[in-house]
Amino acid sequence: MIDLSARWVPTQRDFDDFAAVSGDDNQIHVDPEFSARTTFGRTVSHGMLIYAKLWGMVLRHSPDCRQIHQSLMFPNPCFAGEEITLSVRGMTPGSLTLTASRSADGAVVLSGEARIA
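The structure corresponding to this sequence follows.
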């Protein structure tokens, strides 16, 4: 059984570094001036950056596991400077429930499942 939780405060540097590694340099993630003119009003995290934080928690707990399938939703934005509560629960091998929420208001920024071998 896995029952993991952590807190993370993403930074603009995290967004910029992930953009450099992933090649996803969409302005909504890396350009504060552009993002200020959007509905969000500021840059937002890449969804897969949030997932990478959760997957890192899994690998620290169970280094030999591997993912077979994932299903993810990103219902709310994740902003730099706002603390995120990360949670992984389930069985390995088996199925994991993944959740990331803004600590301040509880808004879910990532909700998903992963099947693990």
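The domain at 2-11+45-116 is CATH 3.10.129.10 (Thiol Ester Dehydrase; Chain A).
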